[in-house]
Structures are given as C-alpha cells and as structure tokens.
Amino acid sequence: KATAAVFPSPDMSRRMVRQDWDKWGLDYYFPMIYHNFYGEYFKWRKKIVKQDVKAVGDNSKVFAGLYLPALKDKDNLSKAIKAAIKGGAYCVSFFSYGALSDEMVEEIKKSVSNTDDAD
Question: Angle at CA 60, nearest 5°, toward 5 and 104?
C-alpha cells in the first residue's frame, strides 16, 4: 500500500507546498489537519476532511491527522476526532506520538465508539 502525510487539503497543498496530492492515486492519505496551525476551529476540520474525501474519491482512504499537542484537553480531543469522522474520514491518525498520554488513549477509545454528537 502507498501512503503519504500531506498538507490539510489539496487546494492548500498546491498553494503552500506545490503538492498535487489529490492526483497521486495513493491508497491512503494522512492529511495533517492541524487546526491550530491555521488559526481555525474544530468545524474547519470537518469541512477540510469533506474536501479531502471528495478529492481522492472512492479508491483511496483519508485518515485525518490530528496534532496531539494541540488537543491535550480531553474535550478538545474528542471534538477533533468526532469532527473528522463526521467529515467522512475513514479513520484518524495522530502526530507527535510522544504527546500521547494514557488519558488521551482512553478518550480516543470513547470517541471513536460514538461519533453521533460531532460538531
């Protein structure tokens, strides 16, 4: 399987780093949807994931990348996961593994089992 960690959306990627990742035809994409890097809020994550899923089509899967240092509060972590899943992400991925705490692991387990109340 071919994968890549990419900037948040194809449009942003083309503009910022000249990546045309929506045309690469990979199996899995891991867009780094770090809301705090762009001064955005959680609803932005859902919107971006929807764009990503549409851009890659049915032949690829999107694993929304969450930046753990910006999600230390368990409510924020839960909101981020749920927004990504509601946006159509196949799953989520976590960046900065060293920031992962036992409490975060428990919140992740709870969040992925119930995405009905996402923003």
Answer: 50
